[in-house]
Amino acid sequence: MRIQINIEKQYDEIEVHIYANEYNVQIEQLMKQLKKNEVNVIDGYRDNEIHMLKTNEIYCIYAEGIKVFFQTEEEEFESKRRVYELEQLLGDKFVRVNKSTLVNLSKITSIQLGPLGSTQLFLENEISIVVSRNYLKKLKHAVGIGGN
Amino acid sequence: MGILIGIATLIFETGIVSFNVQLTLHFCFVTICVFVAGLVGSWFELSEWHTIWPVFLIEVIAYIIIWILIWLLTKREVDEINNLLQNRKRG
Question: Any stretches that span the bilayer, and where are they (chain B) (predicted)?
Answer without folding.
Answer: 23-44, 50-73
